[in-house]
Amino acid sequence: MASLRSFLRSGKTFVILFVVTSCASVFQVNVRDALNQAMDEELERDERVFLLGEEVAQYDGAYKVSRGLWKKYGDKRIIDTPITEMGFAGIAVGAAFAGLRPICEFMTWNFSMQAIDQVINSAAKTYYMSAGFQTVPIVFRGPNGSSAGVAAQHSQCFAAWYGHCPGLKVVSPWNSEDARGLLKAAIRDDNPVVFLENEMMYGVPFELSEEMMHKDFVIPIGKAKVERQGTHITLVSHSRCVGFCLDAAAVLAKEGVECEVVNLRTIRPLDVDTIEASVMKTGNLVTVEGGWPQYGVGAEICARIMEGPAFNYLDAPAVRVTGVDIPMPYAKILEDHSVPQIKDIIFSVKKVLNM
Amino acid sequence: MGSGRLPKTIVCEHRTSLHPQMHVKTIPCKEKNIYEQDPDILPPSGAHLRWTEGGQVVSEAASVVVSSRSYADFTPEATFDIKKVDLHRLEEGPPLTSTLTREDGLKYYRTMQTIRRMELKADQLYKQKIIRGFCHLYDGQEACAVGIEGGITLSDHLITAYRAHGYTLTRGGTVREIMAELTGRREGIAKGKGGSMHMYTKNFYGGNGIVGAQVPLGAGVALACKYLGTDQLCVSLYGDGAANQGQIFETYNMASLWKLPIIFICENNQYGMGTSVERASASTEYYKRGDFIPGLRVDGMDVLCVREATKFAADHCRSGKGPILMELQTYRYHGHSMSDPGVSYRTREEIQEVRSKSDPISMLKDRMLSNNMASVEELKEIDIEVRKEIEDAAQFATTDPEPPLDDLCSHIYANEKSFEVRGATPWTKLTSHS
């Protein structure tokens, strides 16, 4: 042990690639690498696919998601753009009009507001306006929602904003399996897809099976996944908050409350059927999201449950756990209290279950 | 011609539209033996003549109308002086003369007249409330759309803003489907889903409602042309009002950096809605606004000027030099849209002056008549045919049924199996088809 410690202190670095267990092959892949591999494989599979955005090429990506791709594919297919979102998003959409399959990266989704007209008016609506004549096979991707200490202008969640618009598909992966399968599906989709990543998840490793590592592994857009079976209450979430729900469920299980955790995976089209089936089983619903409460994803889910058959199975009103309705502050203590925490989920579950 | 007997009858068939899918008309040239008179006269290029055994020449077309004017009287082509073009960052510009063939002249005349009549008919239908919403008319600017198309081919690409009916025609749409789109019917070019500002054809990306947004889109199309290794280019149009949009400058930058094959074209019709160029732009030299991009300022009322400039610009792009910018100085007779009478910010005298001195159709007509390239009757015949085409199209556009309600939710996603769409109430379940 001492020799190991001194070896580590000596400053030599070594890299462990992955741990292969003795039975079925399992790979430890973090979300960043899952996204990277997905893009790499899709770039290789279809020559029309290309990536553009700020720092995606020579910088290897602002968050290193596109690391190595420029070295492999060159200037033609991995394009560094100037800091002109409206311009390069428009260029990406135009390229999609003319038959290419662009991946347009926004360094964070906050900057997409500079280009939101191109996403909505040029990309989302065109297939409809042209009565099916003009397709727009584009993926817009980048980190969404709160990060750590980046303050108000860099922390907004756009799931509700883009989820509002017909013509778009809006996807919000949680883990590496989601990231890999959904990004591949998005790139192969002939429609404009808004792909909302999460910066805090990039470095988190998850296990991927051999099947998931296959180059044609895709997850269908528009299907939610039940991550944990339960009987007493349904927790519906997306992105990073799915992890919090699972953590809350683990704590609640010790008190005899079995939570069913639904990972939305897709914001639009919303998989209402899976949510309804779960609520009809458990009779209780709490939605959990990082975004603001007013007019948000949770609000939509609650409205749909009220309007559908699952309402009759509710034993208590459905409730939302959300980010606090304020711009994101900077100081750590304030920031920690601006986002939903595991204790907020546990508290809400107990309230709903009248415990 | 070769050896053999001289022909007794000749009927010349002219392609009278710019797009092969548009119907072909037969225009009679003569029914006399012209080659006896002047063996050096060649049939106009593109004429479809078939020689029979007996040395007779007949056309492939069905009907034959006799013209009283002899074919030999028409000049097959003539060269015209055209206005010098102002240059920005260019050593030389397009030529100072343009050679027009009789065939092209008739083609441009017909197309410009078709646009003119179609727009005036749209004005009429709008006032009858058969067309609703936005309707931005192009009359006065015909030389731009027709001249540009004369300088590129249909395998090139084009995108414009909302004053798009003329371009929809020159890019291959028919009057019928354009008018039916304006009236919102099921046979409209966008099945009634798009309307005036959202019409699409092959290699024509609309029709765009958001001022300036079409310019980066056009650069994206140009990027695809370069990426795919074709020698196609994209023409990306915008107005004097849009010329101040930030995204256009962003596009100038990227197009230049990446040497995209794009021709930026500013159609300067002097007014952005109700704001004159002097009131909107600190610099009204729109052909220089591209800064590092070479530019040309062109008389947009002269179809030949526009054509020569476009050819010049296209050569520039295709030789890999990157983007180029053309400012076309033009004028719209109508107001900004049908809800604008167009006289609160400009004078009727100004409009009248442009009409009498610079009308693009009159200019072409005068050129052709004074150079004996066509007869007055022949052009009148075209006018009659165009009028009929527009009447028929308008008749169709007002009687074609509206789109079926089943179509309401279709075309949300491409290549997707059908799915349910929420209607106005939770009980209204509608279906979307791709």
Can you offer a commentary on this structure?
The complex is a heterodimer of chains A (355) and B (434). Chain A is α/β, with parallel strands linked by helices and 355 residues long. Chain A folds into two domains: 29-213, 3-Layer(aba) Sandwich (Rossmann fold); 225-353, Rossmann fold, CATH 3.40.50. Chain A has 14 helices and 14 strands. In chain A, β10 (233-237), α10 and β11 form a beta-alpha-beta unit. Chain A is globular. The model of chain A is unreliable at 12-16 (pLDDT under 50). Chain B is an alpha/beta fold. Helix content of chain B is 34%, strand content 14%. Chain B is built from twelve helices and 16 strands. In chain B, β11 (271-272) and β12 (275-276) form a beta hairpin. In chain B, α2 packs antiparallel against α11 (360-370) and α3 packs parallel to α9 (303-318). The N and C termini of chain B lie far apart (55 Å). The chains are: A alpha/beta (355), B alpha/beta (434). Chains A and B meet through α4, α5 and α6 of A and α6 and α7 of B.
Secondary-structure map:
The complex is a heterodimer of chains A (355) and B (434).
Chain A: H1 2-9, E1 26-30, H2 31-45, E2 49-53, H3 69-73, E3 78-80, H4 85-97, E4 101-105, H5 116-124, H6 126-129, E5 139-143, H7 159-163, E6 169-171, H8 176-188, E7 193-197, E8 205-209, H9 210-213, E9 225-228, E10 233-237, H10 240-253, E11 259-263, E12 266-268, H11 272-282, E13 285-288, H12 297-307, E14 319-321, H13 332-336, H14 342-352
Chain B: E1 13-14, E2 25-26, H1 34-37, E3 49-51, E4 57-59, E5 77-81, E6 86-88, E7 97-101, H2 102-127, H3 142-151, E8 157-159, H4 165-170, H5 175-182, H6 214-227, E9 234-239, H7 246-257, E10 262-268, E11 271-272, E12 275-276, H8 277-280, E13 295-299, H9 303-318, E14 324-329, H10 348-358, H11 360-370, H12 376-399, E15 419-422, E16 429-432
Parallel strand pairs in B: 8-9, 9-10, 10-14, 13-14
Antiparallel strand pairs in B: 1-2, 3-4, 5-7, 6-13, 11-12, 15-16
